[in-house]
Amino acid sequence: MNVNDVMVTDVASCSPQTSLQDIAMLMWNSDCGAIPLVDENNHPVGIVTDRDIAMGAALQHRPLWEIRGEEITNGRELYCCGPDDTVQQALELMEQHEVRRLPVINQSSQLSGMVSLGDIVSFTGTERLRKHGNKHISSKETMEFLRHVSAHHQSHKAAATL
Question: Residue 74: which CATH number?
Answer without folding.
Answer: 3.10.580.10
